[in-house]
Design a protein that fits this description.
The protein is α/β, with parallel strands linked by helices. It has one domain: TIM Barrel (Alpha-Beta Barrel), CATH 3.20.20. The chain has eleven helices and ten strands. An eight-stranded parallel β-barrel has the order 1-4-5-6-7-8-9-10, surrounded by four helices. A two-stranded antiparallel sheet has the order 2-3. Strand 6, helix 5 and strand 7 form a beta-alpha-beta unit. Helix 4 packs parallel to helix 5, helix 5 crosses helix 6 and helix 6 packs parallel to helix 7. The radius of gyration is 19 Å and the shape is globular.
């Protein structure tokens, strides 16, 4: 992967969005989402991969893109055809993996630590080899998703850094075998929390295989100030000699109720109704211009970090259309979470509720 500044987008839900009827417009003209993003400077896409995002028995899809290997390859081919690079994001779960849950895939639930490490290696290698066979070898691979609190719980849950390193290292070895030219990322959330990053990487580096990039999530609602992110990026790059990518970032463009697009039972948007307090200390307003100014600030800060490589905006095209939410009832049964599992992200996309390109895209293009 070349060292061009990454202007990336996580478009993992795109196939489901399209199937549910989402439409995207640039200056009033309808177009393909990836082609519009390409026009606005996107040069890379991030694609999540779940092991088996379907219920046992009737094979009901879990939703939110139902990102199995087949769909990942379809999206990768579309992106590669536009000249974009690919960041492959292994969750090592059948559905969302994040700091609040890292559920062992159904097929792995009876494995011991040795078996889980082998399963990580095999799944990683086989998935990348399948992509390579289709001409879409990933350029960068993320071994685990937001593994702040570990992965493959309970055996790989923090503070069990021995098993965390064992599982991550198995994935890294598989990447090096299947795609020796791919860059390898380890990704945590809470990009403004330096103390946590130092603890995590001090423990991992003593135990685990080498890697190339520290990936961070940064959402201004939860992850501290931009100055805290700035400090952490500089410290991680200097302390560990690794490159830095903001692997997930987003900012709201509206506080407007969107439920006329999805019905009265839709979920509340970020910052609305249930948690307005999350917006009280934002450094930019939840407006189209505020979103654009936020992205200008983030990109500027990344470029000032030694080894700052770029960013991936999280789900820029997740506009509100009926039937495309973050979880189906089958998925909620798998995770044990409460529903309704609708789209709670629509006010953080880079397209408005009707699918029109927002000013932040021009800011990204012109940076």
């Amino acid at each position: 992967m070349d060292k061009t500044f990454i202007k990336g987008m996580d478009v993992s839900t795109l196939l489901e969005e399209e199937a549910c009827g989402a439409k995207y417009f640039d200056e009033g003209k309808q177009g393909d989402l990836l082609e519009i993003l390409k026009k606005y400077g996107t040069n890379s896409v991030r694609l999540r991969l779940w092991n088996d995002p379907y219920s046992e028995g009737d094979r009901t899809p879990y939703g939110a893109g139902t990102n199995d290997l087949e769909k990942t390859i379809i999206l990768a081919k579309r992106a590669k055809a536009l000249g974009m690079s690919i960041l492959l994001d292994f969750h090592y779960s059948d559905f969302w993996a994040d700091p609040g849950k890292q559920i062992v895939p159904k097929a792995w639930k009876n494995l011991d630590e040795e078996g889980l490490a082998k399963a990580v290696f095999d799944f990683t290698k086989e998935s990348i080899e399948a992509m390579a066979k289709e001409g879409v070898t990933p350029d960068m691979v993320q071994v685990g998703n937001e593994i702040t609190n570990g992965l493959l719980w309970p055996t790989g849950k923090k503070p069990n850094f021995d098993n965390i390193a064992r599982y991550v290292s198995a994935g890294i070895r598989a990447v090096k075998e299947a795609a020796p030219d791919a860059e390898i990322m380890i990704h945590l959330d809470n990009g403004g929390f330096n103390e946590m990053y130092v603890e995590w990487f001090d423990n991992y580096i003593k135990r685990g295989e080498d890697f190339d990039i520290i990936g961070m999530s940064y959402y201004p609602f939860w992850h501290g100030t931009l100055d805290q992110l700035d400090f952490n990026m500089h410290d991680m790059a200097k302390r560990y000699g690794k490159e830095i990518v903001i692997a997930e970032v987003s900012m709201g463009f509206s506080m407007e109720d969107y439920r006329r697009y999805e019905g009265p039972d839709a979920e509340n948007l970020m910052g609305m109704a249930t948690r307005p307090d999350l917006c009280e200390n934002l450094e930019y307003s939840m407006t189209p211009q505020g979103q654009a100014d936020f992205m200008q600030d983030v990109m500027t800060r990344i470029t000032k970090v030694s080894g700052g490589r770029g960013f991936y905006y999280w789900e820029p095209g997740w506009v509100p259309v009926p039937g495309c939410g973050w979880a189906t009832p089958a998925a909620l049964a798998f995770t044990g979470e409460k529903g309704p599992g609708g789209n709670e992200w629509a006010n953080q996309a880079l397209f408005d509720y009707e699918g029109n390109a927002l000013p932040a895209l021009k800011t990204i293009r012109d940076f």
